[in-house]
Amino acid sequence: MIGGNVKLELLYPTVKEAAIEPVSAPVSDTAVEFTAKDLHPTGRAPVAVQHDITGSVYTFTVTENRYWFFDFRSGGDAANTYKLTFDALGGSNSLSLLNADILRNDMGFKATDVVAGDNALSVNLSGKPYGPATELSVQLGFLVKGTAGNDTLEGMAGRDQLEGGDGKDTLIGGAGADALIGGAGIDIASYRTAGSGVTVDLVKTAGNTGDAAGDSFTAIEGLEGSNFDDALTGSAGANTLTGLDGNDKLFGLGGNDSLYGGNGNDTIDGGAGNDRIIGDLGKDILTGGAGKDTFFFRNVADSTTSAAGRDTILDFNGKAGDKISLSLIDADTTHAGNQAFTFIGTKGFSGDAGELRYKKLGGDLYVYADINGDKKADFSLHLDGVSDLQKGYFIL
Fold first, then answer.
1. Would you say 110 and 147 are in contact if contact means Cβ atoms under 8 Å apart?
2. Predicted model pTM
3. Neighbours of 161 (CB within 10 A)
4. Is residue 258 over pLDDT 60?
5. pLDDT computed for residue 357 by the predictor
6. How far apart are CA 30 and CA 76, in angstroms?
7. Keyword Secreted, does the record have it (predicted)?
8. What's the rounded Cα separation, in Å, for the pair 158 and 74?
9. Homologous superfamily in CATH for domain 301-396
10. Do the beta carbons of residue 146 and residue 126 sit within 8 Å?
């Protein structure tokens, strides 16, 4: 067609429609091509049908439950911009754009593997929530909007803009200077796909490095690092920072933060506020900062009897409200269930599984736990500058 607008409607007998239409710049004088291929889930040979859109509307009706692949081509006019709206598809439909702008509908929603073709794309997931999670991946720089649910939106190379909308969203900008906009809910900017470590500061973004270089953050409450050595810094508000693998440095600053080191020898500083701090595996250095902070240990391997894997808390202050939580560790492995520890102060282990004691050495204090009753410690923790402990300082 020459000029005008093109609208493509995919009509399903039992679910609502998905539509694609240009929102800026008319199509070129070359006819827009539409290619549909279907692959039956049982493995029947695909059927390919090609259509040239010569009018303002082309309608394709899905008549049976198959795997549908749609290829949209704008006749070589790379200036066209198309808006994709996936509206309330039933079940767990899968919609994908591949290479030359291919839309795939697997009759159940999970949007993945979106790769830009020649044209810039604006992608909007709207309508009813699509279930507990939506995943969308894009490349070469275009706008992606999430749903009211808990979405995972992923960019790749290029200057992407990811908008999570409502819900607890995870935004993965990838390489390039991306604009990450969380919206309502607790939203995370993630660098889990980065090929090297990143430095990310939610406020002072000029110093960000790696995949985070040039990224901007709006309504983002949390950060997730890479599987390498990262430095993650929050804001004055409540943040969730997760290091994943690598020797990470996490700084919560103000607010009631939740900080997760992940595997590796991590350095974690909660800053002001009542923070939740989890070092996880590795020899971690933990600082709660001002406020009533809780240090969580979920497994005896989180802080070992060997110095190579033993955590240190630099500023533990039980009198000021700090706590050490061991409630997720089964204190007695000789019985079924998750047993609570018994605090015995400075006494030696008696041979009863589940005993928790401490020992003071100079200006330091060490916590020990026996979970199998062999009178040997299976867990240890170093508290710097602490003179004594009381049962009330623990969540057993």
1. no
2. 0.69
3. 20
4. yes
5. 99
6. 8
7. yes
8. 21
9. Serralysin-like metalloprotease, C-terminal (2.150.10.10)
10. no
